[in-house]
Amino acid sequence: MIDIKLIRDDTEKVRKAIRDKNIACDLDRLIVVDDRRRAIQQEADQLRQQSNELSSQIGLYKNPKGKWYQDALAKGTTIEQLKAEGDKIQADTARFKLRLKELEEEEKTVADEFRALMLTVPQIPSAKTPIGKNDTQNVEVRRVGEPRAFDFELKDHVQLGKDLNIIDIERGVKLAGSRNYLLRGAGTMLHQAVLRLAMDLIIERGFEPMTVPVVVRDEMMFGTGYFPGGEEQAYRCERDGKTLVGTAEVSLTAMYGDEILDEAQLPIRLAAVSTCFRREAGAAGKDTYGIYRIHYFDKVEQVVLCKADEVESESQHHAIIANAEAVLQKLKLPYRVMMVCTGDMGQGKVEMYDIETWMPSRKAYGETHSASRLGEFQARRLNLRYRGADKKTYFCHTLNNTVIASPRILIPILEQYQNADGSVTVPEALRPYMGGMERIAAS
Fold first, then answer.
1. Quick one: which of 201, 236, 350, 411 could link to 375 by a disulfide (CB 3.0–4.6 Å)?
2. pTM above 0.85, yes or no
């Protein structure tokens, strides 16, 4: 959510963001509704003031023994005149209260529509963000590492997983349907090792480790910007008004909602490993092979809450990207960093980068990380604020990024580290987490 004042003061900039991000948003209707909302508030305030003033006068006309009443009689005003004026004031007060009740009922309807429309307004992207319609127009920032050249016939991760008995897609599908899988033996050990490596690195870099709920109230999904619009991608628990999260970002960002932090507490840097759930609605026929696009996975997520300062926010953004890159560098996996264009970045982002890791069997880089800077967008929805040194309150800036997500990252690990004999060498950085295991071979 962005500030309605910004929408009114710089409407054309907001219109451009709607076009550039290809977001469905009826800005004209929002402005009409806001006009009515403000008119209702203004009329209601005037009526309350008038009603209060008249209410204070009624007692004067209803108290014959009072000094004001006796003074009025002494000046020649008759009892009948005083009664008539008192009755008129009482009638006006009743009329004002009736009108106030009508306005309050209308105000609720208008407020509901106003909030619903406000939730559709996109964040204005940074001036650095490239304009584009989809991921084909994302811009490469840098490449790190060289893809390995193989002198033997390459196996993909599915074949490797089957031959080594570490990935079982058939039984995963039997248990839970398409886009499911099982990891077993050394596959599970490799999966856990990757998560532990990432968590250790992020803790060393000053992030507080957290264990958070993965089933949250729907308000948290609205607060972090996943609803409205993302309901079809989420696993819902409608009976309880809750949702299975697609990322720990939701819980980590929302945990301070409706609180006022102290500026001295910022930046707050949090990290959690959690299972993530995604329906992948609309992805029929897309990346159906293997474990690239699946319904559940585990992810180490990093979240930063910082001051409402563009320079600091941008600095924190590059810092969390560097954290993710550090994990890939420890794994010695080739990757590239992409600046995401307006049409691919989503509603709430000010700026967004993806990290794509080289996947030999795809002969291409595949997305493995996503780093987002959201400005005040989530904080306004969550009412997440801090009190500055000037004693004023401000909305925090929020940022998030994947540290690592598995089992997708197992695709480049298995394929990049495979050997001619069908075994897979365990990356050196993961061996301490796998009891010193150096190689995964068929048993």
1. 350
2. yes
